[in-house]
Amino acid sequence: MGVEEEFLLVGPDGSPVAKAAEALAASGNDNRESGTGALEPEFMEEQLETATLPRASLEELAQEIRAGRARAQDAADRVDARVAALATSPVPFTGTTVSRLRYLQARHTFGMTAREQLTSGCHVHVSVVDEVEGVAVLDRIGPWLATLLALSTNSPYWQGEDSDYASFRSQVWARWPTAGPTRRFGTPEAYHAAVDAIVATDTVLDHGMVHFDARLSPKYPTVEIRVADVCLHPDTATLLAALTRGLVETAAREALDDVEVTETYPELLRTAAWRAGRSGLEGDLVSPVTWRPAPAHDVVGQLVAHVRDALVDAGDLESVTELLGRLWSTGGGAAQQRAWFAESGGDLHRVAERAVEVTHS
Predict the structure, then answer these.
(1) Helices 234-256 and 296-306: angle between axes, nearest 10 degrees
(2) pLDDT tens per residue, range 108-146
(3) Which of 163, 168, 206, 300 is the most exposed place for a label (fewest CB within 10 A)?
(4) What gap in Å lies between CA 125 and CA 53, rounded to an integer?
(5) Which residues have C-beta within 8 Å of that of residue 156, sequence separation ≥ 6?
């Protein structure tokens, strides 16, 4: 498995700064090929993206996540900037699109959706044997993706205001025409036919803009789960990766055992994701077991129970239990940001500054 994290570049006062190209050039990463272990630009000049090397060990992946954050900070240091694991900026901003042809085309085609897309996510890749297994996994994991979003929620503020959401990034991201949950595909042929049909509408620029919550990676032999906010603390990113791998492995085993897929309608999955983005770890989520509201703590427990065998076999159960305990003790990224806001007397710049500290903890 591997993890891609997107980060905000902020100045000394916590405001987003458009210095990605400068930082990459100064650190010698501007001409580096894309791929695992890379430090790359994202859609906006106020962002940097890291990618871990693929790891089987959760301990090694945790080290990779921290190393990627340190690598990004090293690049930012060269241009007097800081790296913050914030899924949206608490401080008002005007985004600057990276000067690449594809990104500039997207800005022209999608207007405000693109201009306001200063959001940072976390993508987890889990290897699969082949596309047959990959599609079987996609057909089974949909009901649990909203729970992964809830665990990661880290974007309560938008343009200087409290959005009243735990993840307002999920709301902004949902503006893209292909974002969100998908139906059951059944076969790789059906999956690719659906993607090709979307591209054929000439609504999106290319296959890379098919932004399903979970998809077959266009680059690697993996399933790519794209639903999460970038996690404030590196431990939460590690937890997210462990649960995601457990979810993929559980689905693959069900497919191998010919466990029948329960049809879940995309509109219900979208509703559950909205609830997760609104409530995060506070209040109720939609339980994939009952499809009724239940406390977030209970729904997360249901997820752990669902993937328990996979966690045990990977040797991850003890680590997941410990990491979940830490997450519950802090309340997660959104809750921490709001607590810092209250402690600072309403200073959103201070919220961003505190986020920088925790990003590298």
Answers:
(1) 50
(2) 999 999 999 999 999 999 999 999 999 999 999 999 999
(3) 206
(4) 11
(5) 162, 163, 164, 165, 166, 167, 168, 334, 337, 338
As a whole number of angstroms, the distance between CA 45 and CA 115 comes to 12
Please tell me the predicted confidence (pLDDT) of residue 34. Answer: 47
- Asked whether residue 30 carries a pLDDT value surpassing 70, the answer given is no
| Rounded-to-integer distance, Cα 333 and Cα 324, Å | 13
Are the CB atoms for 306 and 128 separated by under 8 Å?
no
Alpha helices by DSSP H, listed for 182-282, are 188-200, 234-256, 266-279
Q: Which fold has domain 2-359?
A: Creatine Kinase; Chain A, domain 2 (3.30.590)
pLDDT at 37: 61
CB 31 within 8 A of CB 37: no
Spell out the domain ranges in the chain. 2-359
Residue 17 near residue 9 (C-beta atoms within 8 A): yes
CA distance 351 to 122: 20
Query: In the chain, which ranges are E strands?
Result: 2-10, 39-41, 47-51, 82-84, 121-127, 157-158, 161-162, 214-216, 222-229, 284-286, 293-295
pTM assigned to the model: 0.97
Q: Give the per-residue pLDDT at 28.
A: 83
Please state, as a whole number, how many other Cβ atoms lie within 10 Å of the Cβ of residue 309: 14
Task: Give the pLDDT confidence of 223-261 residue by residue, as tens digits.
Answer: 999 999 999 999 999 999 999 999 999 999 999 999 999
